[in-house]
Each structure stands twice: as structure tokens, then as C-alpha cells.
Write a structure and sequence with these properties.
heterodimer, A: 147 residues, 4-stranded antiparallel beta sheet, 3 helices, B: 416 residues, alpha+beta, 10 strands, globular
Chain lengths: 147, 416
């Protein structure tokens, strides 16, 4: 009957230059990968756990040129950063794989064209979180989140 | 020091109630219904008796309304409040200290324009109770983001928002619940009931006194989840035990030492330097009845700290509404050998440090039916080690600060 959580693995630190946003959501590893050349352009990518399908396109819905019958570099980078942040066991577990599996080994699925809208909008929400007004006082409710 | 017998019994009653939340109110069996009757009995003769009787009868008729679940949440919060009060009293008797006067409750404000969102939040919390924690999956939890996001924008609801965002994120990480080896039911029931009660009020602003003087740090207590961080720098100010608070929203990639980027850099640097250098601080601040010492400008170094002879005064008390054992944080000085298990032990207090330790300063805590001691400072023959004194050094090693990069992104994408 503890009010505290037995400490689960805390997030690993990673640099967000190449992959500003990655999450495990809706059965997928999904997120946003920097373009490298253009700061206003990002690639929105995902790898689905159940179907092993994947996709990558720009935030204006232009398909990534690197998709040539297999997951592009952006998707690979996305998954590798997810593993940095959440741990490879957590990511593989979420995708329904063995803890030490390689998510890109066969059987991989196929290209699944989807609009980047939802993931991109989740990325914007995430960025907006950092603009929320800071409380100046103690927040006693946080006593439940002690380390 | 073992908790009073009555505390143990009350905790068991709470755990039996929690079974209903675990299984789901749409799936209650004989044993769960019995625990609801038992809960009802416990409140006979109290102001909540009528409401609880109605709620328990309604639930038995499968009449599921948010108001009934609010009542059940309030019942659990009240039980934990009574447990808190008994422990609070026991701690003061043990320490031979007088009970400080209760702070007067701050009147709450009308819900205002957030009423709709708060109702949605209550609705979602009721749904969690109907499904049962054990039966939750992502589809029951994820859609709540649509209510949570606009709610987070209301700064007066920061307490509820920090709680809800943490609870929501934690549930998501455990989905589907039935596939987990075990579930933290007591904790989730804590979060559920605290959140439910908080959706029904907009907290008022507390009074404060403008003060200035010397603050002696004792050590840093840090709490965080993916979306929020709250550091409390415990210390002594004019003979009183106080907390200097630092609270902020954040995202998952920003954690630990890096979270100090979220605060005013002059203030962060001064505070973290004082911890590293073992110095006191000259502060200008707002002192609040709950023990918050809110800095109003960057503090200055004020000579070295001598903790060897420091006696810890009184207690830091949270507001009248925050009565749950999880909030107990009673400052205490102990010898090297003592009866309490150590809890929330920062890695800075390692075996090597233990060998040199002659006395310790920290906080008396209560969890899982037992008292524990959280060290803030370990004194050695001629010096001391303080929780948080290594943060400045850790920050200097950080490369590619996340916050700058993300804010750059935000400035291009959110205002394109």
C-alpha cells in the first residue's frame, strides 16, 4: 500500500537536435525528425508495432525520398532515439518484440501512407508545454512523484 | 516508532475500498459491496454520512453519476486525512514538540470559465472507476489529452494539472493494465481521489509576508514526472523550517539537473552555487503560512553555513487541504544510528559517505504503513554533504541543452 512508484527506468538523456520529438503512442513509435537543411521543415515518421508498417513524409505531406521499399534513415533514427529515451527493452516491448530484438529485422511491413497531421499536431502540443506559465509556489501534489 | 493501531486499521479499510477501483464499479462482487458498507459505517456521525449513504446506495443500483464518485473520492481523501492527522500528532509527541496551530483554510474561488473542462475531467475520472484500473487500456486513457491540454493553460489550477498530467502519463505507460505483472493500485487510488476532489474547486491565493534575511539551506528535495518538475530547497529562515519552491511544466527529455534551465538563470545559479559552496543565502522573499519561502529576486551568498550546531525548528506544514501522509515532511536531526529505515536516498549518500557520517538532518516521512527518514544532509566531523550540492557540477557537463533547441523549434513552428 505504497503511495510511491517503485522507480521504473527513468528517461535516458539524449540530444534533441535530430529528433526533437518521439513517443510511444497508439501502438507505434512515432515522432518528428529534423530535415538537416531547413529548420522549418521536419519529417513526420512512424513504425507500427502490430503491422510493422511504416511511413515518413514532410509536415507538408511530401513523401520522404528515402523510402525505397524499406524504412528510410529518418525512421531508423527515430527508433534509435526512442531507445535512447525510453530504453530498448521498453521500445521493443511496446512494439511487441523480444527485448533485444532489432525492430528492423524481418518480417518488416510495408509503406503505409498517412497524413502527418495528427503526429505533427502532437509535436506542436509538446512544444507548447514548454510555454505554459510557471507556478511560483510549491505544488504539494508533486509529493506523489518523488524520486 | 510504529504507527498507532488505528492508522493500520484505517489503511486496511482504504485498501478494501481500493479493490472497487481496481475491479471497476460495474463489476463489483459481494466482497466489494461489503467494503462499501464498511466505508459507509466508518462515516456514521460525521458530516459526510448522508452523502456517502446516498452514493453507496446509488452505486448498488448501478446509478453512476459523477457526484456519487466525487463523494466516494472525498471519503477516501477524508480517511487519508484522518490518518495524516494521527501521524502528525504521533510525530510531534515523539519529538516532544508542540503541535503548531492549523493554518486557516484559504477560501476557494468560483470555478470560472474552466468549469466545462473540469466537468470533463470529473467525467473521465468516473469512467476510470467504472472500467476499473485493472481493465484499462489505451483507448480509455489516451483521449483525455483533449481535455488535459486546454486545462494545462490555466495557471491557477497548477496543482490539479501537475497531478492529472502525471497520472495520465503514468496510466498510459502501463497500458494495457491487465498485462502488467502488478499494478500500483493504492497509489492510483491516491491520485484518482486527490484529482477528483480537486476538479471541484479553484484554489484561492494565500496571504504572505514580505521578508528579508539569511536562509540556511539543508538540502534539495526534487520531484518530477514527464511533464512537471518541483524542486523544494529545505532550509531554516528566522528560526523557522521553510521550503524555497521551484515548479514548472516540462517535457520528458528534460530531466534532473537540466530542469534548472526552466527557471531564471540568475536565481538557479545562486541557489545551486550556495549548495555546492555550503553557503547561506541573503534573500528577499514572500513567506507563506504553508512554509513556502518564494524568492522575489536572485539571492546573494551570505557566508558559509555551519550546520554542526543547528537545531531544527518546528515543522513545515502544507495547507489545511493537503492532508495525506504523502505530504508529511517533518524536519529532524538524528544520530548516525537510529531506528528509521532510510527512504528516497539520493546517490550522494553512498557507503563511502556513510562511514564518515556522524549525524544527519532530514525529513520524517510515512509510506506503506511505516515511518521512514529521508536524508537531506549528512554531517561529518568537520563538514557535511548536502542533497543537491552536486547539481551545479552535473549541469556543467550537459551538452546540447534541450530547452534552447526546442524553444527555437517552437518559435519557428508555433508562430509560423
Amino acid at each position: 500500500m505504497s503511495s510511491h512508484l517503485k522507480s521504473s527506468a527513468s528517461n535516458g538523456r539524449r540530444t534533441v537536435k535530430k529528433v526533437p520529438f518521439v513517443e510511444l503512442f497508439g501502438g507505434r513509435v512515432q515522432g518528428v525528425v529534423s530535415s538537416g537543411s531547413d529548420l522549418e521543415r521536419v519529417y513526420v515518421s512512424f513504425l507500427d508495432g502490430q503491422t510493422r508498417d511504416y511511413y515518413c513524409c514532410t509536415n507538408n505531406n511530401r513523401p520522404c525520398g528515402g523510402l525505397r521499399g524499406s524504412p528510410c534513415k529518418h525512421i531508423q533514427l527515430l527508433v534509435s532515439e526512442a531507445m535512447e529515451q525510453f530504453g530498448s527493452e521498453t521500445v521493443n516491448g511496446y512494439l511487441g518484440l523480444e527485448p533485444d530484438a532489432d525492430p528492423f529485422s524481418p518480417p518488416i511491413g510495408g509503406e503505409q501512407k498517412e497524413s502527418p497531421g495528427i503526429v505533427f499536431s502532437r509535436f506542436l502540443s509538446y512544444l507548447r508545454t514548454l510555454e505554459l506559465e510557471t507556478a511560483r509556489l510549491s505544488v504539494p501534489e508533486m509529493d506523489w512523484f518523488a524520486s | 516508532m510504529r504507527p498507532p493501531e488505528a492508522v493500520q486499521e484505517a489503511l486496511e479499510l482504504v485498501q478494501r475500498f481500493d479493490r472497487c477501483l481496481e475491479l471497476g464499479f460495474t463489476r463489483l462482487g459481494e466482497s466489494e459491496r461489503a467494503s462499501l458498507s464498511e466505508l459507509n459505517q466508518a462515516f456514521v456521525g460525521s458530516p459526510l454520512e448522508q452523502a456517502i449513504t446516498e452514493a453507496v446506495e446509488a452505486v448498488a443500483r448501478t446509478e453512476f453519476l459523477p457526484s456519487h464518485f466525487l463523494t466516494l473520492a472525498a471519503a477516501r481523501v477524508s480517511l487519508m486525512g484522518a490518518i495524516h492527522d494521527a501521524l502528525w500528532q504521533q510525530a510531534h509527541e515523539y519529538l516532544g514538540r508542540d503541535l503548531p496551530p492549523d493554518p486557516s483554510p484559504i477560501p476557494s474561488q468560483p470555478l470560472g470559465p474552466a468549469a466545462g473542462l473540469l466537468n470533463s475531467a470529473s467525467q473521465w475520472l468516473m469512467e476510470l472507476a467504472l472500467y476499473g484500473f485493472y481493465h484499462l487500456d489505451e483507448s480509455a486513457v489516451a483521449p483525455f489529452s483533449a481535455t488535459l491540454e486546454p486545462l494545462l493553460a490555466d495557471p491557477e489550477l497548477v496543482g490539479l494539472n501537475a497531478l492529472l498530467s502525471g497520472f495520465h502519463q503514468e496510466l498510459l505507460v502501463h497500458m494495457p493494465a491487465s498485462r502488467q505483472p502488478s499494478l500500483p493500485i493504492f497509489r492510483w487510488a491516491d491520485l484518482w481521489s486527490a484529482a477528483f476532489v480537486a476538479t471541484r474547486e479553484r484554489p484561492g491565493e494565500s496571504t504572505f509576508e514580505s521578508v528579508e534575511g539569511v536562509f540556511t539551506p539543508l538540502g534539495l528535495d526534487s520531484k518530477e514526472h514527464d511533464l512537471f518538475v518541483c524542486h523544494s530547497l529545505y532550509g531554516v529562515f528566522k528560526g523557522q523550517a521553510v521550503r524555497v519552491p521551484f515548479s514548472s511544466f516540462k517535457v520528458g527529455v528534460i530531466s534532473g539537473p537540466e530542469t534548472w534551465d526552466l527557471f531564471d538563470s540568475e536565481v538557479s545559479d545562486a541557489v545551486l552555487s550556495s549548495l555546492e559552496q555550503h553557503s547561506r543565502l541573503q534573500v528577499r522573499a514572500e513567506l507563506r503560512p504553508n512554509g513556502d519561502l518564494v524568492l522575489t529576486q536572485p539571492p546573494e551568498m551570505a557566508g558559509s553555513s555551519d550546520l554542526a550546531e543547528l537545531t531544527l525548528p518546528g515543522t513545515v506544514r502544507v495547507s489545511a487541504r493537503q492532508r495525506h501522509p504523502v505530504h508529511l515532511a517533518i524536519p529532524l536531526r538524528l544520530e548516525a544510528e537510529h531506528e528509521f529505515p532510510l527512504v528516497h536516498v539520493d546517490p550522494i549518500f553512498d557507503d563511502k559517505a556513510r562511514k564518515k557520517m556522524t549525524a544527519q538532518l532530514g525529513l520524517l516521512r510515512f509510506d506503506a504503513g511505516a515511518w521512514g527518514f529521508q536524508p537531506l544532509c549528512w554531517l561529518t566531523k568537520k563538514d557535511f554533504i548536502m542533497r543537491g550540492e552536486d547539481v551545479l557540477k552535473a549541469r556543467k557537463k550537459l551538452k546540447n541543452p534541450c530547452l534552447d533547441i526546442l524553444r527555437e523549434r517552437a518559435s519557428r513552428l508555433l508562430r509560423a
